[in-house]
Amino acid sequence: MLLNFDKAGAEWVVVAYLTGDEAMLSIAQDRSQDAHSVTASRISRVPVELVLQEHKIVKTETEPNRIEMLRHKHLPTLYEKSYFLPRSMSLRQMGKKSNHGLNYDEGYKTFALINEMSEKEAKSVVRLYKFKAYKGIDRWHRAIQEKLLKDRTLTNCFDRKCYFMEGWGPDLFKQAYAFIPQATVGDMVNEGLVKAMNDGRGDFKPLQLLAQVHDSAEFQYLSDDLRALARVCIKIGNDYMRPKCRYVSMVPNREEWEFPPTEREFYIETDLKVGMSKGAMTDLPIYNDVGKMENALKAALEEGK
After folding, report:
1. DSSP string, 127-193
2. Is 93 exposed, middle or buried, given 0-12, 13-18 or 19+ CB atoms closer than 10 A?
3. Are β-strands 271-275 and 281-284 bridged in parallel, bridged antiparallel, or unpaired?
4. Residue 244 scores a pLDDT above 90
5. Is 223 exposed, middle or buried, given 0-12, 13-18 or 19+ CB atoms closer than 10 A?
6. What does the alpha-carbon distance between residue 200 and residue 249 come to, in Å, rounded to a whole number?
């Protein structure tokens, strides 16, 4: 059976804890929420339920006239208030692209180019994301710059330090904004893989690593012992790839910059997909109960046949 352990959206979750932004944290701490839809709602002021409805209608359509026609036909209520509606994508797609690109100070021109939208529209998305949806991001960026000015050194959530030698300016700042989230997630996955592959117990002997791509790892399990596999899934997903993250935040909760540092400890959950082939993978929760995990694997195996 193929196993894919994924820290999907992990960098965004790390940024939520680094910034201390209450809106981001409320999403990061509640896995029942769809982060992309909530972000879209905060940018556009469209209620989340309408964001989800609109996405089912627009899907991945990118032609502005077609999108406008679909909205007018199926959700005319979107035009009854002064909502911000992206012309070349669904609201949820806007939220997804914003979550993936804007925490590290991506400029509106780059955002427009990558997402094939007008610079005018991209400028609005960037401004609304940083200064309306998640105001803590700008405070975090300023705190990072203050730390660079002090000693040019940043530390990720596992105490790994990086000294930044780039010339002072935007390129340096963007590298610094990205370092802690990206290094934290990379270390989390890499350390988890080392522990899994060095686990000499019998359950782990049939486990083979196939690939590792920054925030995910793919294995194959060469045994039909699903109970043993259940124990492996629990150990990797809820232990080896789910270490405690620790960060001493220098970001104030207010605009005043007289404040004590805040220490935060948090975990980032692991997503699991299983299947007999890459084209037939099933999403599974990672239960702590071995029996429930085994039953979930059995059901996924039957579904894939």
Report:
1. HHIIIII-THHHHHHHHHHHHHHHHSEEE-TTS-EEE--SPTTHHHHHHHHHHHHHHHHHHHHHHHH
2. buried
3. antiparallel
4. yes
5. middle
6. 38
**CA nearest neighbour of 180 among 151, 157, 150:** 157
What is the model's pLDDT at position 250? 66
Q: Are strands 281-284 and 262-266 parallel, antiparallel or unpaired?
A: unpaired
28-79, pLDDT tens digit by residue? 999 889 999 999 999 999 999 999 999 999 999 999 999 999 999 999 999 9
Q: How many CB atoms lie within 10 A of CB 233?
A: 27
Sign of CA dihedral 79, 84, 90, 96: negative
d(Cα 61, Cα 88) in Å, to the nearest integer? 7
CB neighbours (10 Å) of residue 108?
18
Q: What are phi and psi of 6, to 5 degrees?
A: -130, 130
CA distance 102 to 30: 21
User: pLDDT at residue 96 above 60?
Assistant: yes
Per-state percent for the chain, helix, strand, coil, to nearest 5: 55, 15, 30
- 220: helix, coil or strand? strand
DSSP letter at 237 equals: I
| Residues 27 and 33 sit within 8 Å (Cβ to Cβ) | yes
Q: How far is the CA of 297 from the CAs of 3, 206, 218, 274, 275, in angstroms?
A: 11, 16, 16, 8, 9
Cα–Cα distance measured from residue 255 to residue 214, given in angstroms and rounded to the nearest whole number = 35
- Measured in degrees and rounded to the nearest 5, phi and psi for residue 165 equal -110, -5
Do 136 and 21 touch, CB atoms closer than 8 A? Answer: yes
Closest CA relative to residue 141, chosen from 18, 254, 22, 268:
18
